[in-house]
Amino acid sequence: WKMFVYRVLLQDGEGEMKQHAAKMRAFTAQLLSDTDFCTGVLPRLIDAFCLNYNSSSVRSETCLFIRGLWEHCPEEQRKLLYRLVWGRMQQAPAYGRNAAQFLDLLAFLASQDTAETAAQASALLQLLQLQNRLLVNHPNAFLYSQLETVLDFDGYYLENEPCLVCNDPEVPYVPLKMSSIKAETKYTDNAQLVKFPCSYTIQSVTIHIGDIRKSKVVRTINIYYNNKPVTDLSELKGNWSQWKKARVCHFAQLQTELKADFLIPITATNLLFEYASFYENLQALSAEKLQCPRCNKLVTDKHGICKHCRENAYQCYHCRNINYEHLDAFLCNECGFSKYGKFEYTLSVKPSFAAERIENDEDMRKALAVIDVESQNAHKRFTQLASIRAGLLQAASKL
Predict the structure, then answer these.
(1) Potential cystine with 350: which of 31, 171, 207, 394 (Cβ 3.0-4.6 Å)?
(2) What contacts 9, CB < 8 A, 6 or more positions away?
(3) Would the pLDDT of 23 be above 80?
(4) Mean pLDDT (whole number) for 141-156
(5) pLDDT band at 18 (very low <50, low <70, confident <90, very high)
């Protein structure tokens, strides 16, 4: 719908604008004449994306879509759309501040001169009066009003039954270096596996490559993810059935930075970066000489043993590990060092509380254990809040 509107706005000339406006009216009429759309898709769209979705931009875009339908549909279908939107008015208080954009949509519809406007406005007024009485008579109303005179806060932290909307604020994405949030890292000869201490929603990944050696340069990096909590990252090493491919990143030759945006943000506890293909300069590779990492002498022995100091030249320059299965590996499978470049990752993330699907008895036992621990923590915090509330109430009464 947005792309359709943008095409209209980008056209030059009044005649073309009228032509596209006519197409939009025809499109809207066709859409609203579909019974499945009006009785199934559109109500679910309003509930899920106008009211329930925890992103103000998505809620605003959805309300603009509904308004666009209104502005381009025939009068008969406007009545249907009007009743559908106003029919959700009584549910709006349950969505708290997430209903702000929906109320703007109601205000727009109320400003239209329709036969039902007066009745709906009266119902809205009664609803607002009811909600205002609930706020005035709330058990903590006095305490919050007193605290606001001396403190700057925007939450309701003393509730025995906290609101699921107010306690699920819209958290912005922040750029963080992956090295600062990782809990564990494992390597193979061509991949890096990273485990986070908690689940994150990831909007984008920025890859920076430094110290590039021209003989062998990364062409493609595949990004995989999963949200499966594991005790040891080794459980996922080589277990490709547990990974989902999120993005394929293609690099130009000698490109040092690339940003990979996810159209739909991914939720992950673990990430895997696979260095899948390379630009290889055969002439430069053939000119490279095997050098001893200890004494820096050239090594000509086919087994890589330095005749001067007897060290193995195939060992990692950083950790001295030797990968006998892949002597020419792109990465050290122990510490991740690569002589062909240094890779740094910056993630645009925010915390997530999405849980992985329970698929077997072991997953069930782990989930029950987590529930038990978190239930005890919740009860402990509830007791602490109750004791704090009593002291605050006594102090507030003296203000």
Answers:
(1) 171
(2) none
(3) no
(4) 81
(5) low
Q: CA nearest 179: which of 194, 200, 201?
A: 194
pLDDT over 70 percentage in the chain: 94
Question: Residue 345 corresponds to which tokens in the numbers above?
Answer: 């990752």
The residue with greater pLDDT, 27 or 127, is: 127
Got the DSSP string for 317-366? TTT----SS-TT-SS-TTT---TT-EEEEEEEEEE----PPP-SHHHHHH
The DSSP string of 202-220 is: EEEEEEEEES--TTEEEEE
Question: Residue 279: helix, strand or coil by DSSP?
Answer: strand
Contact between 199 and 239 under an 8 Å Cβ cutoff? The reply is no
Please tell me whether residue 232 adopts helix, strand or coil conformation.
Answer: coil
Amino acid at 163: C
- Extract long-range pairs of 250-254: CB within 8 Å, 24+ residues apart: 250/219, 250/220, 251/209, 251/217, 251/218, 251/219, 251/220, 251/221, 253/217, 253/219, 253/279, 254/212, 254/214, 254/217
Residue 241 amino acid letter: S
* Residue 36: DSSP 8-state: H
The average pLDDT across 238-250 equals 94
Report the alpha-carbon angle 34-37-40, nearest 5.
Answer: 135
CA-based nearest residue to 31, from 69, 88, 82: 69
How high is the pLDDT of residue 223? 98
Q: Which residue stretches of the chain are H helix?
A: 2-10, 14-32, 35-36, 42-45, 56-72, 75-86, 100-110, 117-136, 141-147, 178-181, 282-287, 361-396
Q: Which of 209, 198, 175, 177 is nearest to 351 (CA)?
A: 198
Report how far Cα 392 is from the mean position of its chain's Cα atoms.
37
